[in-house]
From TrEMBL:
Any one GO molecular-function label of the UniProt entry: telomeric DNA binding
Signal sequence extent: none
Record family assignment: Belongs to the CTC1 family.
Name of the protein described by the UniProt record: CST complex subunit CTC1
Major site of localization recorded for this protein: nucleus
Positions with biased composition (Basic and acidic residues): 706-733
Keywords carried by this UniProt record: Chromosome, DNA-binding, Nucleus, Telomere
Segments for region (Disordered): 706-753
GO BP of this protein: positive regulation of DNA replication; telomere maintenance via telomere lengthening
Record has 4Fe-4S as a keyword: no
Keyword Secreted on entry: no
Originating species: Podarcis lilfordi
Length: 1255
């Protein structure tokens, strides 16, 4: 790297051929310019430079002087300079660092010479500030610095720094600090000081003076000599900066505390070294108000001197003071780490609270985990926590590769189940920087003021396990929050942003931290003989919640979903899969879902992300890692329409995380479900569902008018370069994008020139009367497309709206100006201001799809536009696009940059609402035979969701286009939804949706309440059954999500059906849903058992398929059973159709007996039994048959089968095939040898759902 160029640097760099006097003048001039010294000091500095580097002026030609200001402004990467080191010494130093951290870049060596003054004063705006830090200062500026060793005589002297490292601050090039590796060389020696012999007290005698009797009060000041055994960090509390010195006797453990708070004496902290002997002069005794403890304090005349036996004289006290209390050093603090780790296995026993151990340890920082939180990694195995004491030198020097020595730190083993052991430093601990790092890492400054981590730590007096978990939680929160504009990191958030973090974490801490917890007493923690601090005792914390990134959450949910709903698991939950052929089996496995609540994860899951709407027409909750589609609804059933929530940071604790699973498989039968080779493709679709009332809004972005301008500029530039052709004219779009520039032109809109200058946008209110779903449509090219032919398929949706009032000028986005009063008269008038039109949403405007709902009022805003006629200019005639006019005269393509603001539901804005064009029908009305409508809208509860074979017929061009644009499932499937008004209701309506629409439909799960709009009502020709189909103009909205536990709802087989009599069953299709009856099995009309080929459904005999033209090579079959029984309860009788496992229950066969029956049928292929009804004429004979068939026939007539049962059923919507449809039929009865002929009503079948033994 070339040394940074500067005027001083050029002067110091020798020129080829220059004479020695010229070189000397250049160096002297440069030294005077940097140091601001006189000629004598500059000459001394030059001689010191040559003597210290052992180089003459010619050998110094490769070096250059660097000033502090040039170092700050020009050096953007970490660098080092070693004036006295050889290349081998530098390589050895780097090699030692690489042995610890092999993946770190080494420092780059430069040939720069640094000369300056060491000072403890920082230049402020008005006065000099002293905070305990040291600075290197020259004539151009100052830099903070940290040294491994410091002498008081260096302070204020001109020094040459032969070996130093410069570390710039991360993210900025104008700040950093210096690491002084070697002792600086004093340019000019200071005056020699003559010291007199000092009378001193040793700590044993001085400790007695802390509780001195009146006879010792005349001792105003005293000198104390002792060995430094402990040194607290510099603390800044209540606008006071101070630290404590602990001196102990040379021959005993007795020690005394000395309180240092004078600004001129804070620099002593850099001089003091553990184990060295010192003399402190002019000390006084004082009592600390906060704790009542007595300590020694320094006075203005106090000095710190090195201890020398020849220059001190011991003083003594009378024996009357013997026995006064002293402060002693705990011998337990000297335990080594190796012995403490041997107790790790014993510590694994479960106890309510554990006690940490105080140890000493020396190691190397291998990673900065979180500088603001005071967390570092030591030797790749321990976490060092410095948060419980204020950071030494603002964290300067604590970089990966630096060596530290710890004394009296707390060893906390496994504070969290998944975290390493932690070495926690309290206020009694001592942290000493022993060596600097050779790695090239930037400076991560620690903020002592406004540090959110430390604020929460002190506010709640957190234990170490809770603090470690809190830091992890806030780091995750930071990842969510910093995606918002202008936010960088948690310690530098704005007041509003920090309030959001506090709003999130404080309620959690209020639950975890008990009320009335003892506050931290710093004086007791530092001075008390019996040590008390937050690190002394701890409990292993089970985290109460987690907020992982959405990418990890989706992966976790997807894994749990496939595990819970694997094909083999589905077989266990649905035993009837054993009796279906391959086609039906794969169809049932094709679409499934798993739902997880917050409690489904351990620990409990909390969602944290900001809400946005995507250009694919769905809401999404996202963070930096992933965006997850979401569905929001209200508890009272209202659709979610709040557009102001976009961009807000949300916290959701009650939710459902739904994973829809799409499986393409070719399983031959249920026997191969455990094999993965038959799974061809697996896809998932995640979605989060939650209620708006369960949302906590942590952050709401401020209104930014400039954002609307930026959005409009982006969309206009995108439109100019976009090759896609839409129905909106390019010239009109250009008029919108240039509206902001037209403000200063002469063609500004006529009304109110002054208001046009102030206004930033034009808006207009509209009422939605009908909304269609997302579909792919073809549009004809417009005149702005250059005459190119062809169509362009685009995803879009349409909404029929009514203008409410006239356009208005607004200053800010979301402002409605002079909003008109909405009265019944205003809604009913048919003026031009309320003209009906069709809004067309394409491309980026699709993001408004989730917010638009019928009967809701919205404000459409065009940013940076002052033309009140812009909406009329945007309108087109239907002939321009491939749109069905549907009696509409105009349609308006919504520009990409337009904004939408939800005003409210029209029923909430006015007292009375007139009858609208659309109407919600009840399911009972739709099922009624007298209903005549074709397009219907209704709401209902999804009772059942299945896939059926797609109807093979002619599809509309729109449906064909939808299939061509891709699908989640194969194209030969159709979704069948059974919809009921409420749980357990008798009315059930079938809704059919082609799977081509599925990618844009969300939340269609059993138990969900859905609003269906504009579905086509149909009636089957053969059986007159009513059903509805989803068409291109249809739309669905989720009013309430399915509950996580479906057992709370009565859906399908899980319901508790109503118990009734058979006489109440009517042939009306809508008359009854699922019901239960206590009845008696009269007889078995027919019983058929056969094995079918799982592939072609032909008869399967002797282990192979019987089909020969074309031959089927399948060797897999499934057993199917079907029985028709007659039941009666004394009021009526019905034929009931039973299948598979239901036949087993009707015949009262055990599982082993049922297997024997199936194995026999497998050899013969099929068995069929036909029985006459119980009132058949006597004397009828039966054909001879094999023994097994005779056994089944006898079983069907035995009291084992003809018994009372509890039957769960639903009516069959198809009439019985035994009789012709009509008003009635003739039946023959026999009684006591007499024959009777009677007219009976048409018989309807019942479909068996379950058979239970009557109790």
């Amino acid at each position: 790297m070339d040394p940074p160029g500067s005027a001083a640097g050029e002067a110091g760099r020798g020129l080829p051929g220059a004479s020695l006097p010229a070189l000397e003048r250049q160096w002297l001039q440069a030294l005077r310019g940097i140091s601001g010294s006189d000629e004598e000091a500059a000459g001394a500095a030059l001689r010191c430079l040559m003597r210290g580097s052992q180089k003459d002026l010619l050998q110094l030609q490769g070096y250059s002087l660097i000033s502090v200001s040039d170092l700050q402004s020009q050096q953007r990467m970490p660098c080092c300079s070693h004036l006295t080191w050889s290349s081998d010494e530098f390589r050895e130093w780097v090699r030692q660092g690489e042995g610890v951290l092999s993946n770190q870049r080494r420092l780059q060596r430069t040939h720069l010479i640094l000369v300056g003054y060491l000072t403890d004063e920082r230049l402020g705006e008005k006065e000099k500030l002293v905070d305990g830090s040291l600075y290197v200062r020259d004539n151009t500026g100052e830099l903070p610095c940290t040294l491994l060793r410091f002498k008081l005589e260096w302070l204020g002297c001109l020094l040459l720094f032969p070996s130093w490292i410069y570390i710039p601050k991360a993210g900025k090039s104008t700040a950093g600090y210096l690491e002084i590796m070697q002792d600086p060389i004093q340019v000019m020696p200071g005056p020699e000081k003559t010291l007199d012999i000092l009378p001193v007290f040793y700590p044993r005698q001085a400790a007695q003076l802390l509780n001195a009797r009146p006879q010792y009060k005349e001792i105003a000041k005293l000198n104390v000599a002792g060995e430094l055994c402990r040194l607290s960090t510099i603390l800044y509390i209540h606008q006071n900066t101070f630290f404590f010195i602990f001196l102990k006797c040379f021959s005993s453990a007795t020690c005394i505390p000395v309180f240092v708070q004078r600004s001129s004496q804070l620099v002593w902290h850099h001089v003091l070294q553990l184990g060295q002997r010192y003399v402190l002069t002019a000390l006084k005794t004082a009592c600390l108000k906060a704790s009542g403890l007595r300590v020694f304090i320094t006075s203005s005349s106090s000095h710190l001197l090195p201890y020398c036996t020849e220059r001190v004289k011991e003083q003594s006290l009378d024996s009357t003071s013997e026995g006064s209390p002293t402060v002693s050093v705990s011998t337990k603090a000297c335990e080594q780490l190796s012995s403490s780790l041997e107790l790790e296995e014993e510590a694994k026993t479960v106890v309510p609270a554990r006690k940490s151990q105080m140890i000493s340890y020396a190691g190397t920082i291998t990673q900065v985990l979180n500088a603001q939180a005071g967390l570092y990694e030591l030797d790749n195995k321990f976490t060092l926590c410095l948060a419980y004491q204020q950071m030494l030198n603002y964290g300067r020097g604590l970089r990966p590769g630096a060596g530290v020595e710890l004394q009296d730190v707390h060893l906390v083993q496994k504070p969290l189940a998944a975290s390493p052991s932690v070495l926690g430093a309290c206020l009694r601990s001592v942290v000493v920087l022993k060596s600097f790092s050779p790695c090239s890492t930037l400076y991560q400054p620690v903020a002592l003021f406004g540090n959110f981590y430390i604020q929460l730590l002190l506010r709640f007096n957190l234990s170490l396990p809770l603090y470690i978990w809190l830091v992890s939680l806030l780091e995750t929160f930071e990842q969510r929050f910093c995606i918002l504009p202008h936010q960088q990191s948690l310690h530098c958030l704005t007041h509003q942003a920090q309030a959001a973090a506090e709003k999130f974490i404080v309620p959690i801490l209020n639950v975890l931290v008990p009320l009335g917890k003892e506050e931290r007493n710093i004086h007791q923690e530092i001075l008390a003989e019996e040590h008390h601090c937050p690190l002394q005792q701890y409990q292993i914390l089970e985290p109460p919640c987690q907020i992982p990134p959405f990418s990890l959450l989706s992966a976790m949910a997807e894994k749990k979903g496939w595990e819970s709903l694997s094909p083999l698991q589905q077989l266990n939950s649905a035993p009837e899969l054993c009796n279906v052929i391959a086609e039906e089996l794969n169809r049932r496995l094709a679409w499934s879902y798993s739902s997880f609540s917050a409690e489904s994860f351990q620990p409990r899951m909390v969602l944290l992300g900001w809400l946005d709407s995507s250009s694919s027409g769905s809401l999404k909750l996202q963070d930096r890692s992933k965006a997850v589609p979401c569905i929001i609804f209200h508890k009272d059933g209202r659709p979610f329409a709040d557009t102001s929530l976009v961009g807000c940071l949300l916290q959701v604790e009650i939710f459902q995380f739904v994973i829809e699973q799409f499986l393409r498989s070719d399983f031959p039968s249920w026997q191969q479900l455990g094999s993965q080779e038959h799974i061809k493709e697996k896809k998932t679709r995640p979605c989060v569902q939650f209620c708006f009332e369960d949302v906590e809004i942590l952050y709401t972005p401020e209104k930014r008018a400039s954002e609307g301008r930026r959005v409009n500029e982006r969309t206009s530039s995108h439109a100019e370069g976009d090759g896609s052709k839409a129905a909106e004219p390019r010239s009109q779009e250009g008029r919108i994008s240039g509206a902001g520039r037209a403000e200063s032109g002469a063609s500004t809109a006529e009304p109110s020139q002054g208001s046009a200058v102030e206004a930033a946008c034009v808006s207009r209110l509209f009422l939605v009367t009908q909304k269609e779903g997302l579909v792919w449509r073809n549009y004809l090219p417009t005149s702005g497309d250059g005459g190119k032919g062809g169509r362009s398929a685009q995803l879009c949706f349409q909404a029929t709206v009514v203008w409410m009032g006239s356009p208005e000028l607004c200053k800010n986005l979301g402002e409605t100006g002079c909003r008109q009063e909405f009265t019944t008269f205003a809604l009913q008038e048919t003026s031009e201001a309320q003209q009906k039109l069709l809004l067309l949403f394409l491309r980026k405007s699709l993001r408004w799809f989730p917010f638009l709902h019928p009967d809701h009022l919205y404000q459409l805003t065009i940013p940076q536009c002052t033309d009140l006629g812009v909406f009329d200019q945007l309108c087109c005639s239907p002939a321009q696009g491939n749109l069905n006019p549907l009696r509409r005269s105009l349609f308006l393509p919504v520009p990409d940059g337009a904004l939408l603001h939800h005003v409210g539901c029209i029923s909430q804005l006015v007292s009375t609402v007139p009858q609208m064009d659309r109407k919600l029908f009840s399911i009972a009305e739709i099922l009624s035979s007298s209903f005549t409508g074709s397009l219907v809208s209704f709401s209902g509860l999804i009772v059942q969701r299945t896939l059926v074979q797609s109807y093979v017929g002619k599809k509309s061009p729109g449906e064909v286009l939808m299939q061509q644009m891709g699908n989640l499932l194969t194209r030969d499937y159709t979704v069948k939804l059974r919809v009921s008004p409420t749980a357990g209701a008798s009315e059930v309506l079938d809704v059919y949706i082609e799977t081509a629409f599925l990618p844009y439909l969300w939340g269609l799960l059993p138990g969900a309440r859905i609003l269906f709009q504009n579905l086509q009502r149909k009636v089957s020709i053969r059986f007159k059954n009513v059903y509805c189909t989803y068409i291109m103009s249809s739309c669905v909205s989720v009013l309430a999500a399915a509950p996580h536990d479906l057992s709370s709802l009565q859906l399908g087989a899980a319901s508790a059906p109503s118990v009734l009599h058979l006489s109440r069953i009517t042939p009306e299709p809508s008359g009854l849903g699922q019901a239960q009856v206590a009845c008696h099995v009269t007889c078995v009309l027919s019983l058929s058992l056969h094995w079918s080929c799982s592939l072609c459904n032909c008869i399967f005999t002797e282990g192979r398929c019987s089909r020969y033209n074309p031959p089927c090579l399948s060797r897999t079959g499934v057993c199917k059973a079907r029985a028709r029984i007659i039941v009666e309860d004394g009021t009526s009788e019905f034929v009931v159709v039973c299948k598979n496992q239901q036949v087993q229950k009707v015949l009262a066969l055990s599982a082993k007996e049922w297997d024997v029956v199936q194995n026999h049928v497998k050899n013969t292929g099929s068995i069929g039994i036909q029985h006459s009804e119980v009132n058949t004429a006597p004397g009828q004979t039966e054909e001879r048959e094999d023994l097994f068939t005779w056994y089944l026939r006898s079983l069907c007539r035995s009291p084992v089968v003809c018994r009372p049962v509890l039957l769960t059923f639903r009516p069959d919507r198809k009439p019985s095939g035994d009789h012709e449809a009509g008003l009635g039929q003739l039946r023959r009865f026999f009684s006591n040898g007499l024959e009777f002929l009677s007219q009976t009503r048409q018989r309807w079948n019942l479909i068996c759902l379950d058979v239970q033994e009557a109790t």
